[in-house]
Amino acid sequence: MFHGVELKEKLVAQLDENYIVALGMRYQSPSIASALDELLDQNVKKIIVLPLFPQYASATTGSVIEQVMDDIKGRLIIPEIEFISQYPDDKLMIKTFAKLGKKYLEKLEYDKIVFSYHGLPERQIRKSSIDDYCQLNEKCCSTYHSKNQFCYRAQCFLTSRKLAEALQISEDKYTVFFQSRLGKDPWIQPYAEDEIKRMASEGINKILIFSPAFTADCLETTLEVGEEFKELFIEEGGEEWQLVESLNSDDLWVESLKHMVVGHS
Q1: 138-150 pLDDT, tens per residue?
Q2: Which residue segments constitute the domains of the chain, with CATH numbers given?
Q3: Who's near 246: CB < 8 A, 6+ residues apart?
Q4: Coil, strand or helix: which one is 177?
Q5: Whole-angstrom Cα distance, residue 197 to residue 123?
Q6: φ/ψ of residue 240, rounded to 5
Q7: Burial bucket for residue 57 (CB in 10 Å: 0-12, 13-18, 19+)
Q8: What are the residue ranges in the chain where pLDDT is below 70?
Q9: CA dihedral (105, 108, 113, 115) positive or negative
Q10: What is the pLDDT of residue 28?
Q11: Burial group, residue 161, by CB count within 10 angstroms (0-12, 13-18, 19+)
Q12: What are the pLDDT digits (tens) for 235-262?
């Protein structure tokens, strides 16, 4: 909430008087409904919905879109609505993450760079597959095209490749895994816990980790990735585990949002 409010205030300062910015939370307050009320009370001509999830998933961005449509139905006046559904390789977003990471890379040489993403059940990925293209392996997620343009896993790997390029690190220098799995159903792999143990067993002692599925720090970055994963890594024999903070309200991230909003106006 702290980062969200500050991000909103900074974005308002960057946009001209033709724009009104409202903050809505999918499950908390201020709600999406209250954000829509705020905009409609100002008699806006168009609403641009920008979910703060770079990679599309039905459980995140899809849920936001569904909630917006549910909250606005039945209104007497409904302006034009446009959704920015995904931006996994947005240049300024990638540049911001890279900038935040470089300050750590300048101080210490890390054995491995890790990109950790929130996990999803495999069934959700397969359901969104076009022409049964999805194979949930490195081959089908190693490129990004029309057949997997809405595949969350493929988008996570795309973000990782772009970040690796921005950080000027080779493919063998970084790894990708998925966190926060629940229940007994298979979730997308590699699993975070398994990869952490594997890296420690292979003598990888110093890790710099990003969490690019989150644009603002929360319990799943600071606690799960920053503390719980660190404890596991140290227990398994690792030495250094450093979490790179999320985009939060970084000025370059605000510029990225501005470009996206203006580009869809």
Answers
A1: 666 777 777 778 8
A2: 2-87+249-263 (3.40.50.1400), 91-243 (3.40.50.1400)
A3: 3, 211, 214, 215, 216, 217, 221
A4: strand
A5: 26
A6: -125, 125
A7: buried
A8: 127-140, 183
A9: negative
A10: 86
A11: buried
A12: 999 999 999 999 999 999 999 999 999 9
14 and 258 in contact (C-beta within 8 Å)? yes
SS3 label, residue 102: helix
Task: Tell me the pLDDT of the chain averaged across its residues.
Answer: 93
- 3-24 CB burial, b ≥16 within 10 A, e <16: bbeebbebbeebbeeeeebbbb
Q: Which residue has the tokens 């449509």?
A: 69
Amino acid in the structure at residue 12: V
Length of the chain: 265
The rounded distance, in Å, linking the Cα atoms of 9 and 5 is 6
Report d(CA 245, CA 92) in Å as an integer: 16
Q: Residue 55: which residues within 8 A CB-CB, separation 6 or more?
A: 86, 88, 117, 152, 155, 156, 159, 213
Amino acid in the structure at residue 107: K
Angle ∠(124,55,78) on CA atoms, nearest 5? 90
Calculate the CA 260 to chain-centre distance: 15
**Integer Cα distance of 32 and 17 in angstroms:** 22
CA distances from 242 to 113, 165, 211 (A): 10, 20, 11
Pairing between strand 206-210 and 240-243?
Answer: parallel
Cis preceding linkage at 79, omega within 30: no
